[in-house]
Amino acid sequence: MGDLYSYPMAESVELLLIAGAFLLMERGVWVWSGVVAAIAGASRPTGILTSLAYAGEFISRLRTEGGRRGMLRVVIGGLLSPLGLIAFCLILLHQIGDPFGFLHAQRFWQSPHPRNPLFPLVRRLPLRYAAWGAGFPVVAVLDGYYIRSLAAGPRHLLEWFPLYFALAVLLSRPRLRFLQPVWLIGSAALLAAYAAMFGSWHFVS
User: Fold this and answer.
1) CA angle 108-134-190, nearest 5°?
2) How many whole angstroms separate alpha carbon 3 and alpha carbon 15?
3) CA dist., res. 88 & res. 91, Å (int)
């Protein structure tokens, strides 16, 4: 993958800027790190993820006694960090009328990409479902991390009900509709098998 950084592509610039932003964070120069992070977001959309670093710092300072000193600089840096991507989207809106043209243009690269079944799902459901659905697997993984075992992970993920909506949207497509009886029969068979194992005192997780 290192050969990518020898090409005239934005990944090397983004990596340099993100590294610079984190270096400035380590030195406590939070406002300027936000400026550098904003430039990183303008170079590549994934640069906006640097904003999560400021959110993490903000939360950790809230939980640390005396950590609120200098909090304003962290907040300013965090507010500056997404401005690069926002500015880029505004430029696209002005020039081509599509603020997310960098995403929509991907379908013209080599061949059309398959649509993610979660996209129409997110549009149809209220935002609270998407927020809960994004947070729940994180909590499930952390729960397994703290007990030092992920054996119960599948059991916890059964509660991730937005996934069922996504599968329903996916299997409702005409080309995949034949899989609906296969999915239902297979799921019923697995449910009966696991119920029988559980009822006969076999370990099921």
Assistant:
1) 95
2) 14
3) 5
Residue 50, token pair as written in the block: 């640097």
Domain extent at residue 104: 2-108
Which residues, including other chains, have CB under 8 Å from residue 152's CB and lie 6 or more apart?
143, 144, 205
Residue-wise pLDDT tens digits, 49-97:
888 888 888 887 887 766 667 788 989 998 999 999 899 989 988 998 8
Structure tokens, 14: 């983004």
For the chain, what is the domain count?
Answer: 2
Residue 136: inside a domain: yes
Query: Does 177 lie in the same domain as 100?
Result: no
In the numeric block, the tokens 């949207």 are attached to 169
Q: How far is CA 198 from CA 144, 188, 195, 204, in A?
A: 22, 15, 5, 6
In whole angstroms, how far apart are CA 47 and each of 37, 42, 83, 105?
7, 7, 11, 19
| Cβ-contact 179, 126 below 8 angstroms | no
pLDDT digits (tens, 9 = 90+) for 117-164: 555 555 555 555 666 667 667 766 666 665 566 665 666 666 676 777
